[in-house]
Amino acid sequence: MKKLSLVLALLLLQLSLWAQKDERPALIATVDSFFLHLHSGDSAKMRPLLAPQMELLTVAGDKVQRSPLPAFLMAIARQPRLQEWEEKLWDYRLQIDGPLASVWTPYSFYLDGNLSHCGANHFTLRQKADGQWQIISLVDSRRQEGCLNRSWAQESQAKIDTLMDQWHLAAKAADADGFFGKMTKKGIYIGTDAGERWYRDELRKWAKGAFKKAPAWDFSVKERHIRIDEQGGKTAWADELLDTWMGPCRATAVLSYQNGDWKIEHYQLSMTVPNEKVKAYLKWLEQK
């Protein structure tokens, strides 16, 4: 009975540790290490990352190909030294349930700097007793159509960065055409008030007075992140930290590529509240 109680106590302790620790950085680091050793051709350093019975499957069209683990490691070790392999990962999508996790990574594969193919990797991992993550299966898809090219992604990120800067500058200069012209006709702007949800032309009508004199409003960008859709590269997401007259604000944007230009489809602006001020803020709201 005492042994059973001890086992249950240890199991509950392990479950508690899984619940408390954020394992996402460790999972991403494991996947990144996999590709680091793949690119360098180091099968010896690759081996500890892989479970002994790891499964490797490739889906291409309507065919599924299974690769034995020893053959996979041998292919890495025998990678031609004059060839350069690079698998560019566009995103990491993680799901975790205790000692079990999955990581989904859309990718583009380059051989000697040239785009070869693209697809997605699906890693399944398990956490060992020592806390390290180990890959127990890898399924990848491969295609040559609809690939996101690195140069297109980099070029698009630069264009979107410039577009967003110009958009904020247009508001500062009270340039209504410059501001609203960067939104799609059905673009949506969500402001900080609970009732502020406008289509582009509704916002233009509401803000007509503000755009009569500069600045209509003045937001300075302190930080911005942009991600391009890996399935075709015609949609993008951005988030930014802004310095405004309301204090620090966070904003998110959705953009689409139309007729040779990026346009803002959706923009949401939110005021930030420091965590230590939330209770006081809620109390203030109750007094309104």
How many structural domains can be distinguished in the coordinates? 2
Q: Assign the CATH class of the largest domain.
A: Alpha Beta
Low-confidence stretches: none
Q: Percent of residues in beta strands?
A: 35-45%
CATH fold node name of the largest domain: Nuclear Transport Factor 2, Chain: A
Tally of extended strands? 13
Cα-to-Cα separation, first versus last residue: 59 Å
The Cα radius of gyration reads 25 Å
User: Quick one: biggest sheet?
Assistant: 7 strands, mixed
Instruction: Estimate the mean pLDDT confidence.
Output: 90
Order of helices and strands: HHHEEHEEEEEHHEEHEEEEH
Q: Structural class given helices, strands, pairing? A: alpha+beta
Plain-language structure description:
With 288 residues, the protein is α+β, with helices and mostly antiparallel strands. The chain has 2 domains: 2-141, Nuclear Transport Factor 2, Chain: A (Roll), CATH 3.10.450; 150-275, Nuclear Transport Factor 2, Chain: A. Helix content is 32%, strand content 40%. The protein is built from 8 helices and 13 strands. The protein has helices at residues 2-20, 24-40, 43-46, 69-77, 150-172, 176-180, 200-206, 278-286, and strands spanning 50-60, 63-67, 85-89, 93-97, 100-111, 114-127, 133-141, 183-190, 197-199, 220-228, 235-244, 247-258, 261-271. Strand 11 (235-244) and strand 12 form a beta hairpin. The radius of gyration is 25 Å and the shape is elongated. The model has no long low-confidence stretch (mean pLDDT 90).
